[in-house]
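re: ur question from yesterday

yeah so i grabbed the chain u mentioned. its 351 aa long if i counted rite. heres the sequnce exactly as i have it in my notes:
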Amino acid sequence: MKGFYDLSDLATADVEKLVARALHLRAGVAPRRFDGKALGILFFNPSLRTQASFQRAAGKLGVDLVQLQAGGNGVWGIECEDGVTMDAGNAEHVREAAPVLGRFVDVLAIRAFAGIQSLDRDLRDALMNGFRKHAGVPVVNMESALWHPCQALADWTTLDFYEVSRRAKFVLTWAWHPKPLPHAVPNSTLCMATQRGMDVVVLRPKGYDLHQSILAQAGALARDNGGTLTITDDRESALKDASIVYAKSWASLGCWGNAEAETAQRADLREWCVSPEWMKRTDRARFMHCLPVRRNVVVRDEVLDGPWSIVIDQAENRLHSQTALLESQFASLERKGQIRAKSPVTLELPQ
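ran it thru and got these structure tokens back, copy pasting raw so excuse formatting
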């Protein structure tokens, strides 16, 4: 496996193998160890679950961890556009930063959110793809402008853990939030559920469709895996018979980069908060969210603290699914003979 960018880059059978391995690890099976190998993790954005779970996974696998944080007292600002005159804030270019890190580690993991300033740049996933192009080692996407495949893998693991039917109804619902949020999680959630073969409904107010390229990809995954995809603003019909309600807020494509327009567009949408009344319309659905979540903004306390919520198991599965993923990455390199020798080279110094 050459890195991990988007879950649907993998064949469904390969995703299923990773999920099965994650569940074995959760049950107490010990992962393989790769002592002396190295994992680099570089964060351009805040993190709790991702940071902690990758640290713990590295420990379970016995690999050295090189952890870096961009900004502040961390690494230099990194430019990813070609042909620029670097006389502004960024002191380093991805063309140098990525291959240097690639010389230090065997696998490199990057977290770099959408800026929600330039739609073109975010659709190109410029920073993540810069690292993928220049690192020279497998790059794992810990969340980019477009995708959050590690979350999607954990979510698939959670659905299997709870024995949710492949043809169950899965509702991905937009929720109100005080600021516009990136599309990586809803993009990956949508494509995960359609690749799993579920009957997927995207419930959103008008003006909050996901990008057409993502919808087209999800539609193709649904057709290929025996599922369906519906997009609606009809809450009653969307929630009826649902087995999963997955809440997430995301920005309007029509207001991308225009915070004032976004604020005005969502001003009257605060009722898009998942409540017990929402959940009672379902078929005893489970509630999912990637976390962090704003209580009584995205979802009511009664739902998060009630019998519907499985968000803590969902978060725990980040650890197990990422351990399975990294195990597969290092094992693949080992099979291909691309991992550095275990023993250092001994040089004879002149007398």
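noticed a couple things. The chain is about 40% helix and 15% strand. also Residues 7-147+318-335 form a domain with the Rossmann fold fold (CATH 3.40.50.1370).
anyway ttyl
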